[in-house]
Design a protein that fits this description.
Number of strands: 10
Number of domains: 2
Radius of gyration: 19 Å
Oligomer: single chain
Strand content: 15-25%
CATH class of the largest domain: Mainly Beta
Shape: globular
Length: 277
C-alpha cells in the first residue's frame, strides 16, 4: 500500500448509498463506563469517506462483509471481512469505501485523555485476523435493545461484551508470551540500535520467522512495529516535556531530528512541532 502524499484534513462524507447506525455517549451514558465515545454499525458505498486528524481515543474496526481501505501507520491498507483494524489516540486515521463493493463493518471509538492508558497503543496490532461476526453480533444486540426496551441492565450487558471484544482484539499478548517479552525489552530501551538481526535473536528465531510472526500477530513488520513504539514514546515526550525536538529524536532512537520529523509526520499526520502546539 502507498504512503501518505496528501495533506489530509478532517472529513465526513456519507452519500446516498450509506446506511449507518450509531450511539453516542451523550445519548447513552452507560458507554462512559469504558470511556467509549460512540460505537456503531456501518453499511457503506462510494463516496463514503472519513478522515480523523487527531482523534481523542482509540479506534477499533472489524470488517464484516465487503472491503474498503483504511489509513493506518501512514499507509493505506486493505480492510476486509475477518480483519480488525486498530488505531491509537491522537494519530491520523482515515477510511473510505471502494468502487465495486459494499463495505460493512462494526466499530468503536473511545475518548481517552492523555493521562489515561489507551485501549490501543503502539504495542497493539494494527491489523489482525478475528471472527468477523462477533463484534457485529454484539453491536446488533445492543442496537435491538436500544431501539426496543432500552433497559439499562441489558444495555450495560451489551456494552460490556462490546468492550470486552475490543480489548481482546487490541491486547492479544497472551497468544505469544515470547513476542511480548521481546517488545517489552525494546520499549524500555528505544534509543538502542535495534536491528532485525538483534530482534530475531531475542526471539530465538530466524529473521524470516520473526518477521512472519510479527506480521501475523501485529499486522506490522518488526521494523514498522519498532517505529510505532518510538513514535508513541515521542508523542508522550512532546505532551509532557519541553525537551527540544533534537533531544526527543535521540531519546527514542532516531539518528537525527529531520529523520525523526519525517517519520513522525508520516505516522501521526503532522510534524512534531505542530503536534506539540
Amino acid at each position: 500500500m502507498t504512503e501518505i502524499h496528501l495533506d489530509l484534513t478532517e472529513t465526513t462524507v456519507d452519500g446516498p448509498g450509506t446506511r449507518l447506525w450509531s450511539v453516542h455517549r451523550n445519548e447513552c451514558p452507560e458507554l462512559a463506563v469504558h470511556r467509549i465515545l460512540h460505537l456503531g454499525l456501518s453499511d457503506v458505498a462510494v463516496p463514503y469517506r472519513r478522515v480523523r486528524v487527531q482523534p481523542s481515543g482509540s479506534f477499533v474496526m472489524v470488517g464484516h462483509e465487503g472491503r474498503g481501505r483504511i489509513l493506518l501507520d501512514g499507509r493505506w491498507q486493505a480492510s476486509r471481512a475477518g480483519v480488525a483494524c486498530l488505531a491509537p489516540p491522537r494519530v491520523l486515521n482515515a477510511f473510505h469505501a471502494v468502487h465495486g463493493s459494499r463495505w460493512r463493518f462494526a466499530w468503536i471509538r473511545y475518548d481517552e485523555p492523555e493521562h489515561v492508558r489507551p485501549l490501543v497503543s503502539a504495542a497493539s496490532p494494527v491489523r489482525v485476523r478475528c471472527d468477523a461476526d462477533v463484534l457485529w453480533r454484539i453491536l446488533s444486540g445492543l442496537r435491538a435493545e436500544w431501539e426496543g426496551g432500552k433497559e439499562q441492565r441489558l444495555l450495560h450487558h451489551w456494552i460490556e461484551l462490546a468492550h470486552g471484544e475490543a480489548k481482546r482484539i487490541a491486547q492479544p499478548w497472551h497468544v505469544d508470551d515470547r513476542l511480548w517479552k521481546v517488545w517489552d525489552e525494546v520499549a524500555h530501551d528505544l534509543a538502542a540500535d535495534w536491528t532485525l538481526d538483534t530482534l530475531a535473536a531475542r526471539y530465538r528465531a530466524s529473521k524470516e520467522q520473526f518477521r512472519r510472526v510479527c506480521l501475523r500477530e501485529l499486522g506490522r513488520s518488526p521494523m514498522q512495529h519498532l517505529t510505532s513504539l518510538r513514535i508513541e514514546r515521542a508523542q508522550q515526550l512532546l505532551d509532557t516535556t519541553q525537551d527540544k525536538i533534537e533531544a526527543i529524536a535521540e531519546q527514542v532512537g532516531f539518528e537525527n531530528a529531520p529523520v525523526f520529523s519525517r517519520a513522525f509526520k508520516r505516522w501521526v499526520g503532522q510534524s512534531p512541532k505542530r503536534y506539540r502546539e
